[in-house]
Amino acid sequence: MLRWLGQTSGGEKRNEAGDEDINREMKKREFYAKWLTGREWLVFDHENVVMFCQDCAICDEKNKKRINFVVGTTNFKVEAVKDHESSRSHQESLRIKTAKTGRMEESLAGRSLALLKTSELEKMQLLFRNAHTIGKKGRPFTDFAWMCEVDRKKGLKIGETYTNDYQAKEFIHYIAEEERRKMRARLSDGKFISVMSDGSLDSAVMEEEMVYVRSASEGKVKVDFVGVKAVSKPDATNIAEAVCSIMESGVSTDWKNKLVAITTDGASVMTGVNNGVVTKLRADRPNVLGIHCMAHKLELAFSDGIRKNVMARKVEDLLSGLYTLYHKSGVNRASLKQLN
């Protein structure tokens, strides 16, 4: 009857009012640019119509699938923004970001280091110097203990901890990491690099490929040792893969973009026109120069020059015979020592 008279019941009025409230609420839920003020971490994706926290997306890897502000949320409420801003996960992401981008003295590690006593720093300096000496001179790790004992005899306060061969290995590891970091930073600043590679047999009669990098920075040319890698079979494919692996792990993944020259010995496996190591490395960059090492070239020239000299061959045979005579026989070696 009320509908026939053009009127509505109270329930229908309430429903219509409720629908209007819902529509009004849905219209209100949109992103406001003013929320970005004072919140550098907040980002609005216009394409997907979501907002997210860029700091959490970068730092909080383990929570990417269960935090809405990492994968993106459509809950456009200022309360939601404030709740995330005060959440524990967001604060942890800010702490990680500050530690990575802030100054050293402002980070937790920097403050902890500043609190160390001067005596402790001096002890660590002595320990690191001993470890650096062992690494530089190629001495065994077991020498670290007696080197620390010598420091104590000299009156140096080196402490009683971190003086074993295991800690020496740890110290040398971190020294090497720092040197590699410096090398990578210097090579990344340079525009061009050249690679020098050569193989050698180790004590276990295994082929080892060594790689050096030559670069120029601020007018100074520097050669850096990048690494060494065992090669299962010394053919062109395996050697080229070893060189690429060493360069990618020791320098950067885009090292080929700066490569201008490759220096090797004159072996056919290295300089072969059709299937040599240099040819394989130049596959993507044909303008890279292949250079025959001058020292190896001089050795070959000298060998070719004396090959036809009869007296040179006699001297070589004489020296080889003398070496074999005394090296293979302990009796002959003892007799030679008696003559001295």
Automatic annotation (TrEMBL):
InterPro entries: Znf_C17orf113. Residues 1-21 are annotated as: Disordered. It holds the Pfam family zf-C17orf113. Residues 11-21 have a biased composition (Basic and acidic residues). Signal peptide: none annotated. Residues 40-99 form the C17orf113 probable zinc finger domain. This is C17orf113 probable zinc finger domain-containing protein. It comes from Perca fluviatilis (European perch).
